[in-house]
Amino acid sequence: MSLPRKQDVIAAAISIVSQKIERIKAELDDLNDGNAQNSKSTAGDKHDTERAMVHLEIEKLSKSLSVEYAIRNDLEQIKADSVNSVISNGSLVETSRGVFLIGAACGNVSLGSTSVFCISAHSPLAIELNSKSVGDVAEVNGNDFLIKSIQ
Question: Whole-angstrom Cα distance, residue 12 to residue 6?
Fold first, then answer.
């Protein structure tokens, strides 16, 4: 397996998160437009219920949007050109169980034939990998992760 460059992984992850942000913003715009139309009607309980449900959905999407902005910020803080001999926040780590970018929890990013899992620095795996180097083994939930390379 050819390990992608850390810069490419970060760029792909930022692109995915930015697309999510745009999708959420579009959904929020649609809901706000629909809510404005609903508020013009004064037909009674049915419309009050609809407005309340739309309001709850807007709150949920607003929280999701906030989370996605935070993830994108975390990704933008990773120094793509820094390479350490030990794993830390921002490391791209190849293990016997997959490739991981530590620093932002945005899920799976595919680059060619390689899947990279972007995980939070506070996740159990990232905590276990922290300060380890090539050849070390991290154990999480009974699974061993042999560290093959670090970028």
Answer: 10
